[in-house]
Amino acid sequence: MSSTTGSRIVVTGATGNVGTSVVRLLSEGSQVGSVVGLARRIPDWSPARTEWSAVDLASQQADLAGEFTDADAVIHLAWAFQPTHDPATTWRTNVLGSIRVFDAVAAAGVPTLVHASSVGAYSPGPKDHAVDESWPTHGWPDAAYCREKAYLERALDTFEREHPEVRVVRMRPAFLFKRESASEQRRIFGGRFLPGPLARPELLPFLPDIPGLRVQALHTDDAARAYVLALGSEVRGAFNLAAEPAVDADLLGRMLGTRPVRLPRAAARSAIAAAWGLHLLPASPHLFDAVLRLPLMDCTRARTELDWHPEHTADNVLEEILAGLQRGEGAATEPMQGHKAG
């Protein structure tokens, strides 16, 4: 789709962290004719030229082909992170629901599918240099999030062979943050125990420096611009999306004014596993294992083929999410609603 003028764009997961940024950007542009936001619950939020439809991707009764009729593109963002103790439930939504989306795109004759993959789809890789989109996408098998993202990469391989008429774009962003996502991400990853020491850095006696804990971050609005840029071009395939610099204990220590202290990986994992096992921490030790092994991503292809450049640095992104945690900020949708930190 070389031009988005007058086009009809359907966005799944439209009320979440990425979805709200994508819908807002599409609704503010004069090129798009209409936006259809699919979500389990219809929000009070009413962006320009946007209509909502209540759809649960986990339901076999959902008429996705009907929702996609006359669409020029589908941007598939819907994803369930929890319950981490019940991977069969997330599999039904994330994997089986996504496959329903892919099948419905083909059935409805939608010419473009933009899919939210992730750095989490990548196999373990280097922390001292960046890899491009050719790096293997087999994930980290013990972590449900990575396992599901990697499985969908294989599902899309098959889909592209069977439906060459559909232009498929796979976005593989780093960890995504914005101020309005603070409350949602607190609930997803940290639970009620996250805000205390993290939202108040002065309470941290030291910052754990764990071997391998070097990752990338990106502002959600910068990721949304890449999604929209992909609509207005003829690109296909995968795109890495991340901001500089890479995030490690030294960067966090400078930002928080806290001294990094080396902590053995096994000790950190044991603490996380104990908290997760007691249902005190939503993020699983398996995801922690995966994060320590994720490669750093080279974003040259996004810069050269989409003319995409992040407007926020990684430290800007972290400062913004920290401020959001301190204020319990959110947005006017069910997944993003604010909750005061305490």
Low-confidence stretches: none
Query: What is the strand arrangement across the widest sheet?
Result: 3-2-1-4-5-7-11
The secondary structure category is alpha/beta
Helix fraction?
25-40%
Largest sheet: 7 strands, parallel
Following the backbone from N to C, one meets helices and strands in this order, namely EHEEHEHEEHEEHHEEHEHEHHEHH
Mean pLDDT across residues: 90
Q: Could you say which overall geometry the principal axes of the C-alpha atoms support?
A: globular
Number-wise, the strands total 13
What is the straight-line distance between the termini?
A: 47 Å
Number of helices: 12
Radius of gyration: 19 Å
Amount of beta strand: 15-25%
Characterize the quaternary organization of these chains: single chain
